């Protein structure tokens, strides 16, 4: 029996209507760290290899590569040795399969979890409140499409990892995949670009609200839970599982699809921001409700088409898709409508990937102001946009504009104080000019599109 250590100031309890949850046993102020949790298991995205250390997720130049596979990169020998128990699951296979080595990120993460579970004898530092095996999986709620996807993942596990892993039985694999589907975290950098996937059992206990009182950010392979408003003793801790930009109907649909519940928070009940998020153009002839409904349907389909196209089309084709959809939506929607903002954000990412920094700035400037209105004041999406824009301005030799944008990240009262940037980008305080460096412009910039 693995003894539960607990976390000072935090306790697990039965949350009415929500199952397990976490609440505080003392008061916390906005900006205060409630607790941190190291990843139980994690993987770096293939696109980030060569730019980030596989072990500690530090982004730096001059990383040393694995002498055998030449695909994994590390800060130093110590990081390489620490990572070997996990990297060895892939090292030989990558050499054998070459370009045909292509397990999904989910498969890679599950393989590492299985390897760790096989040798684990005591509770890990990631499981002070909840054991990984006790995470919720919602297997009974999965539709046929998700069940088929899990079967495909199991086939991938056997294909790429059978020489290095002893697998549990089929049902146990299905359970583990379901748990990862519901509880996996996308580890992000300071610009909210995806770096990889991870499991944090203790943080999986946090319930969702579209009016959260904490946010989860990442420092290397550690997740940190930090208050964004004052929390009183006995209050439940809530984070947001999804991007809060979108209107109530879209958020509820996404929560049902991925997490199998409906949110009943104040924002979902009052829908107070929906009118602002769904702005339509002011024309001489009033736009009918049918035209609005039809355009919403078109916008959602366009977003879904774009998600699929990211894996099939080149940057120029993707940019054209964005521009065509923006033009069509502009016949009904205002520029600050969230569906237009979504496609503009994608267009900004494509321009960045193509090193068209003028285009990226043009789209970024159109997105920036509406973001500050539509996102909650504490949102990291606002901070990350100021950071992106500051770096772009500096790269385009618009130094004063760049410094102004970067200073807004640090000093804006709308960001609930300096804790946001202290958690995201410590080095910014020391040297603003270093932000002229544009981070690796890979297409995972486009992954933050939920």
Automatic annotation (TrEMBL):
It is found in: Cytoplasm, Cytosol; Nucleus. Residues 53-91 form the MYND-type domain. It catalyses: L-lysyl(4)-[histone H3] + 3 S-adenosyl-L-methionine = N(6),N(6),N(6)-trimethyl-L-lysyl(4)-[histone H3] + 3 S-adenosyl-L-homocysteine + 3 H(+); L-lysyl-[protein] + S-adenosyl-L-methionine = N(6)-methyl-L-lysyl-[protein] + S-adenosyl-L-homocysteine + H(+). One of its GO terms (molecular function) is zinc ion binding. Pfam families: SET, zf-MYND. Transmembrane segments: none annotated. InterPro entries: H3K4_H4K5_MeTrfase (IPR050869), SET_dom (IPR001214), SET_dom_sf (IPR046341), Znf_MYND (IPR002893). GO terms for cellular component: cytosol; nucleus. PANTHER family: HISTONE-LYSINE N-METHYLTRANSFERASE SMYD (PTHR12197), N-LYSINE METHYLTRANSFERASE SMYD2-B (PTHR12197:SF290). This is [histone H3]-lysine(4) N-trimethyltransferase. It comes from Sinocyclocheilus anshuiensis. The lineage of its organism: Eukaryota, Metazoa, Chordata, Craniata, Vertebrata.
